[in-house]
Amino acid sequence: MIAYIIRRLLYVIPVLFVVSLISFSLMQLVPGDPAIVIAGTGASPAEVALIREQLGLNEPFHVQLLSWYANLFRGDLGTSLLLGRDVIEVTVERLPVSLSIAFYALVLTLIFGIIMGIIAALRQNSWVDQAVMTVALIGVSLPNFWLALILIVLFAVELGWLPSAGYVDYRVDFVGWLRATTLPAVSLAMLQMGLLARITRSTMLEVLRQDYIRTARAKGLPEHVVVGKHALKNVMIPVVTVIGIIFSVLLSGSVVIETIFSIPGVGSLLGSAILRRDYPVIQGGLLLVATMLLLLNLLIDILYAYFDPRVRYGRD
Amino acid sequence: MSGPPLLSVQGLTTTFRVEEGTFDAVQEVSFDLGEGEVLGIVGESGSGKSVTALSILRLIPDPPGQIAGGEIVFRGENLLKASPGRIRQIRGGEIAMIFQEPMTSLNPVFPIGDQIVETIRYHERISRRAARDRAIELLDRVGIASPAQRLNEYPHELSGGMRQRAMIAIALSCNPRLLLADEPTTALDVTIQAQILELLSDLREEFGMAIVLITHDLGVVAQYVDRVIVMYCGRVVEQAPVEELFDAPQHPYTQGLLSSIASLDGDSERLETIPGTVPSPFELPSGCRFRPRCGFSRDACSLADPPLIAAAPGHAAACIRLTGYALPRTDAA
User: Which domains are present in chain A?
Assistant: First the structure.
């Protein structure tokens, strides 16, 4: 098990390198000049050129890249062009906001997605199955920004149950956090919930046809043990695999959702940085988020080995 | 057979509903099994052998399958009328079952020890520790070396033969009175097959349990079985004590099966085969189901599907040659 974890950790290094290369290059390829944005609309060409000089934007690509890497190794991702603050600092202070919402959405996705999938599979072809699958289909079909607006109209404007915008730190006021993040989390989770319900349902149906399920019944085990123990652990193998993907989609979906709900998270930070060509924030923010997702996927791989004992020794 | 039978199956009919329609996978199957007796059920794929065994434990997947009629009386209790809770007590407790595919019959994500221990603990009030000790004993008894270590291994770490031994250990864990063995050696290498069958034979003497051994291998039947039922297209076509069946088979299908065994004497150059193939359950011929493949068929054979007709004490076959091609009026079985 330890060897397996170490092996997975070593895989992270080359991936991280590629990710850093992409995060740096991506914005260089996009048209637009941050110097013009910073200088403002009324600036003369000379002023723009000066700013460009100060930011090192005139250097060739590889020089810029190398100096970015040199700073990276010293733990310095640069300073935000617009906020004038350290990129790591700005990103890290907003991370708990985005992570807590994504995590909340993940919990909703897992609980409802898996339960819906299992119920649908156990009642295959009944009206329950059809109802659950219809809900899942609706979830998959609705764009999350549209769903967010509908939820705001319904629960914030009409019913007045939940706030339509803003964020409360969970360390300060947990109930307030729950109220502020429920609508964003539901908007984010709906699509993934639908997908997960479908995956869980089809996997469960597949697993229930397996010989070892017949064996479990032949041993005299009650049905809740047959399903809840013998089938479920096998169902979890493909489900765990997609959890990593689901979480990264939830986190990237937060760019739009955080903007709609005026939540000061990494998503809205990156969103505005992209609009205003704040290179260091985009590059550094992307790298930090990507690194986090990589580590999360590592965790998933470890979980995967727990659910499927064949993984531990099988791989070279 | 002295005293009431351990298991009495009477008129068992199990139907399956598929896209093409509904058919009887097993039709009007009847047999008795005494304490400690070994009954062989022989037939080709699709003859209804496995469905018969699964019906006894009510393990037919529903849908598409359903037990449509008959009685299955085990120690005086009709299992078809038993409550779900009672059936669970019997499954793995008084009647255990092992399957054809040891590769897929064990759950891949639990250590084999867990799979034995949980069976014991669902049937008996016993501590985890005691159940574990019993599991080690059982693994040792079924011939698995260093059982204490094997207990923590997963099915994929064991060979096919080892897995079937582990399955047998699970089956024996609660001292069943009856073991249903559904082609337990079909998926194994020939040398391993013999070991597993020897093991079952030893265990039967040691535990005094009865065995229903389902197989398509008449060689297996000859060696390990007391009495044989031959099935064809969901019906019993012949039943007899094993020596009788080999010495004086009455049904043309049984005769065909016997002559298609490769003999080591090497008298015949070629293996005999039964002409034709098993008909689809939706295109059964009128009258006797074996008629289109039978060398003895006459017009009378197409009139009705013959019941079992006594040929000798304890020996019956569903062939109207036994009555000189006259349709019998009563069931002689």
Answer: 87-314 (1.10.3720.10)
The domains of chain B, with CATH numbers, are 7-232 (3.40.50.300), 235-323 (no CATH)
| Contact call for residues B193 and B155 (beta carbons, < 8 A) | no
Both tokens assigned to B236: 């019993």
Tell me how far CA of residue A186 lies from CA of A144, A150, B12, B237, in angstroms.
9, 12, 54, 64
Q: Which of 132-161 (B) contact A at CB < 8 A? A: 154, 156
Q: Average pLDDT over chain A, rounded to whole? A: 84
B23 touches chain A (CB under 8 A): no
DSSP state string for A217-232: HHTT--HHHIIIIIIH
Kindly state the average pLDDT of the residues B167-193. 85
Kind and range of the H or E element at A289? helix A279-307
- Chain A positions touching B91 (Cβ under 8 A) are 217-220
A215 touches chain B (CB under 8 A): yes
- Taking CB atoms and an 8 Å limit, are A220 and B154 in contact across chains? no
A310 touches B at CB < 8 Å? yes
What ipTM was reported for this prediction?
0.85
| pLDDT tens-digit series, residues A68-104 | 888 888 878 778 877 888 888 888 888 888 888 888 9
C-alpha A20: how far from its chain's center?
18
In chain B, how many H helices and how many E strands? 11, 12
Task: Enumerate the β-bridge partners of residue B212.
Answer: B39, B180
